[in-house]
Amino acid sequence: MMARKLRRRDVLGAGALGTAAVGLGSLARPGPGPNRTITLVEESGVPESRQFASAMIDSGFAGEVIRIDRSLNGLLHELESTTGTIIGMTSDPAAMIAGQLLGERGAHARHFWQHHYTDGRWRHRTEGGARLIGSTTHAWPVAIAHQLQGAIGSRSPQVSNACTSGVCALLASSPGMLVSWVYEFEGDQS
Amino acid sequence: MSSIVPQGVAAADFSNALDEFAGVVGKDRVYIDEQPLSSYRDAYSPLADGEFLPSAAVAPDDVEQIQNILKIANAYKIPIWTIGTGRNFAYGGPAPRKSGYVMLDLRRMNRIIEVNEKYGYALVEPGVSYMQLYRHLRTIGSKLWIDPAAPAWGGVMGNALEHGAGYTPYGDHFIMQCGMEVVLADGEVVRTGQGALAGSKHWQVTKHAAGPQFDGMFTQSNFGVVTKMGIWLMPEPPGYKPFMITYEREEDLEAIFEITRPLKVNQIIPNAAVAVDLLWEASAKTTRRHYFDGKGPLPQSARTRIASDLHLGMWNYYGALYGPPPVIANNWKIVEDALMSIPGAKLYLDRENDPAWDYRVRLMRGEPNMTEFSIMNWIGGGGHVNFSPISAPSGAEALAQYNMIKRRCHEYGFDYIGEFLVGWRDMHHILMIMYDRADEAMRKSAYDLFGLLVDEAAEGGFGEYRTHLAFMDQIAKTYKHNDGALWDLHHRIKDVMDPNGILSPGKQGIWPKALRETS
Question: Which of A100, B135, B403, B488 has the maximal Cβ count within 10 Å?
Fold first, then answer.
């Protein structure tokens, strides 16, 4: 239908906001690209987000960690110039805000997995194998961290999956609805 | 690439128009792929996913580019939908009124053109956010405050054009607006007020000039593209005293606003005095699941437990005093005597580890933040749509609205989550209809509830001041005086100023002639 295709090659507002690198480290092992920077977002008031971030850091996978508090202001401050791959497990509102900020700067949503607590169980909608996640009740963010690392490193299509945990209590201060997400700036090797 | 084409536009013409847009702004600033276009979706839409999607977006950087884009849109009769920062969530976010429109995305036009410390104003472009202006003022060492809407990423201009409100004494944003530059549909550039005088230095200090004042017609409308706007900024006061008072009973609402009215009308309380219901307040600190994991409205026993656990009232009243300390001390005596006269009232001048207190106190002193989004954690995956009727600052009207709306919320299985704010002579009631985005039935119920409330409020004499895209037509039709004469006037103006109907068709129920019959 179209005479030609137009492609987005730039990022909205980048000129005004600045594109300086934020001093991120390199991956310690193969990830989404050679020497590709990774930024990890931790929502410090959310226990599952802390577990997820710890697991990522323990595996040596993360570059810089951005910690945001309940004000969520850190998302505005930190995501305006971040490049490379950005990973997080956050509450749904924080995921929405991150998605807006990164999406309009040209980042692609690579993974968007949902974790919903209802009727005394966690229900996970992910990609890839679900057995490990389904068999955990409180340590599932650790399992998600490992599974997400595998998904990021893989360029083959991921299969959608859903699973439900055993009966468990909701941790105090958990929002009960979380999203683990990965955004990536295409062609960026900074 | 998006497969959507604007309604009534031939594919070949659309393709040519996109080529010409690219000639104006560069290929990299015309977006047609699904990924960039997905950022124009309404993340909290009460409609099924996939509605209100644009066909393309074009992002100009200056007025001349806008003029050229409008010329092309007129030539091909392409409908365009203008956004500033596109953060109008709960009312549609960045999404267009109809699928197929081309987004006129002004986020790149984010220059703070002037800050005038002496006279207390800023002149900004459409893409300037509250957080951006706040940071800029702090960077240059300004002693001026901004008045942010609750989410810090909102647009200074867009919020004023949408009749938005904040929480300092400068909280009525359109009243605090002064001077606009507007590109009309035919490309002509107009400056309002003293801005029409060549070389005027008074564009941002007075709204008035010889002749009619037009600024209002460019708010919540589709008569032009506003490209610059002046906004008055409050000088930092020598003193600031925020306070919160909790009230035990739902029916206290009537007394609260009977007491508030003279305090507001006489400017003893200079900022927007707000009464926040229990659950709105609680949702900044906890989630519904921690108290009740069932369907339907929260049982009274759970509400009582929440109030006790979190030291909250059924209503939680926030306000602040500003000025020299002796003035604050004098006025505080009046405020305290009046508002503490309701039995059971508890006063707080500080609250530890309370994110709700923290973000309200910040807002009332002009510090933007994003905390209000945390409220969506209340039910998890929270989508929301705001129902916003206006009334007088009357206790009886507040209680009548509250009872009517709460009853309907409960009938439809929703919690009442709302607040009342008193401005100069008005009272805004914001009902947040919160639903689980993953629950299709709940989303549909939220939509149905909203539609019912619009009609019932209108029957009770209450109109909305602002609304989501999906309800603009319905709300326009509630303004029925003299057989809908006001919207007839809007349409007569639209037909003259934008004969091809290219500017934001359907915005606020104002449709161009060609689409009026089909809308």
Answer: A100
